[in-house]
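Example (one chain per record):
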Amino acid sequence: MDLAQLIPAAEAIPSPWGWLEALLLFTFILHILFMNLTVGSAVIALCARLTNRPGGTGAELARELGHRLPTTLALQINLGVAPLLFVQVLYGQFLYTSSVLMAGWWLSAIAAVIVGYYCLYVHDAKFVSAPGLSRLALALSLLMLLYTGFLLSNNMTLMLRLSAWGAHAANPGGSFLNLTDPTLWPRYAHMLLAAPAVAGLYLALTGNKKGRKDWVAHGLAWFTRLTMFQFLVGGWLLVSLPHPVMLAFMGGDRLATALLIAGVLAGLAALLMGVKKNPRGAVALTLVTVALMAVTRAQVRSLTLAPHFTPASLPVTADNTPLFAFVLALVAGLLAIAYMLRVYAKSADAGTAGRS
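Predicted structure:
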């Protein structure tokens, strides 16, 4: 069967695809940073609560991280809307198809996020008065977030796997999951390991600010150990890619190869900063690494679809009004978020001082 015959007709886009792709990457990087911070902080906080006595330093660390989780999750969700919409604009015929194939699972993500969000408030509100309930709420919230991430990984890999779309004939109820895709599990593991590693850096910076050397050491331990594993998982992900795509990243395509090498070198440099107990340097290099890996991820999508589709082939209506309106709204929104985060940080520090 000619797989290209399975692809629905593409819609026209309002602006040149390069601008839309750039905005997709920029907003995705913002979203993935807050995702790492939220999920990773939940992992570290839950581990601290399960491995330390209620009145120990682990509980104090967990309260510090847990108190901020509802805010970071809200930002993660809101910042995730834009990249999802840009993917729909540029690759809608692929994403809509994969979403229909797994529709039942995909729609359940909404309920999972709502439950996870509510549980974070329960964790914070009942931290002292009902510690058992608080721990359970945090564990349930983390489970819901991991479930949602798993569904996202399923959808983003299924949209690239045209050969699996025929499963709709045997499974028309929208309950298909892309479990046999060799890229699904390493891709999901790659994202999972990144979350507590990035959150570890946040904990180290918080420890620096509060003069807590134990928090700095604990956060850097999370970062360095998981980053080491990331290189193994990254290699697993590379060899799991379709053979032509893998070869492109191993010298067959100059841009793809350069991006991969730059991302690996930036990750190694960040790891070195972590080993040297330099959290600020590790943060700066981690931001570079995340940006490079986001672009590399886009290259994987582009190379995988290249035999059948390229966004450069999309018809353009040449109406840039929506693009300009979005850019203005994005700038205004980011400025507002930066201001709110600054005010929130001051109030959170004051609240922490009051509790102590």
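Caption: The chain has a mean pLDDT of 92.
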